[in-house]
Amino acid sequence: MMKYIICILLGCLGKDITAQSNLDALLHRYTDNSVPYISIEELVMCKDEAVVLDSRSKKEYAVSHIATSIFVDYENFTLDTFKKIYPNQNTLIVVYCSVGVRSHTTGKKLINAGYKNVKNLYGGIFEWKNMNLPIINRNAIETDSLHTYSEQWSKYSKNAINVF
Question: Which residue ranges run through the membrane (predicted)?
């Protein structure tokens, strides 16, 4: 009986390690680590001090987003507008997308523009929801629906109603 319980526990741990390594491999493939990561736990601790930017599409943001986030639209992000609203280049800025690829690009633009405290949310909104943290829809109502960009990317979303 004890062997059976240990096997189940190891199986569960193996799944978490595999999921983590799959995400690590994905981010390594599509990013160059020039934007440092911030963990979900770190963001939760300093969320009130951070400017949190959602760099997904308008359609994704409408389905759900982190409550305090500001929509910046990955495809149409403009530094000029951002600099006018957030001129302090020492402000903690946390950028997220689905898993961390598009937010990496937005983060690089901010760093290249002189912002000194830019972080990429490791695992993005998928990891946020995977940790059972709340997300809200366009009406500011908590939801379990999460736009996963595509069916392929939805494999990284575990605790949501996946929409694509």
Answer: none
For the chain, what is the mean pLDDT?
A: 88
Question: Which H helix or E strand runs over 23?
Answer: helix 2-30
Class for the domain spanning 33-163:
alpha beta
pLDDT digits (tens, 9 = 90+) for 103-150: 999 999 999 999 999 999 999 999 999 999 999 999 999 999 999 988
C-alpha span between 160 and 139 (Å, rounded): 18
List C-alpha distances in Å: 137 to 61, 114, 126, 142, 156: 8, 32, 15, 6, 20
The Cβ of residue 1 has, within 10 Å, a number of other Cβ atoms equal to: 5
DSSP 6: H
pLDDT reading at 6 higher than 80: no
Q: For 67-82, what is each residue's pLDDT tens digit?
A: 999 999 999 998 998 9
User: Cα 139 from chain centroid?
Assistant: 20
Is the distance from CB of 57 to CB of 75 less than 8 angstroms? Answer: yes
Paired sense of beta strands 70-71 and 118-121, if any? unpaired
| HSE-up of residue 40 (Cα within 13 Å, Cβ side) | 15
> Does the reported pTM lie above 0.90?
no
Are the C-beta atoms of residues 111 and 119 closer than 8 Å to each other?
Answer: no
